[in-house]
Amino acid sequence: MEKRNFTILIERDEDGVYIGLVPSLKSCYTQAKTLEELFPRIREAIELCLDVEDNIIQNTQKRTDLLSPISIDTRGWKFDKEEANER
Known about the structure:
Layout: E1 9-12, E2 18-21, E3 29-32, H1 35-65, H2 81-86
Antiparallel strand pairs: 1-2, 2-3
C-alpha cells in the first residue's frame, strides 16, 4: 500500500468536541471528545473514504467498458429555430 499524506483540519465545537475533517476527501470527517480518540478515528475515516473512492472508480471503469462509439448521419436533418426557442 502506498503512503499518502492528507491535511486534516481540527476544530473544537462549543461543547468541547473535536472535529477532524479531511478536505481533499469528500465527506471525510469524524469527531471525538479528546485528541487521543480523534486521531485513530480520523485514520479509520480516511481508510473508509479511500475504499469508497476506489469502489466508485472500479464501478465507473466497468460501466465504461460497456460503452462503444456510434456514428449518426445527421445529413438531411432540419432544425427549426423558432420551435427550439419555444421549448
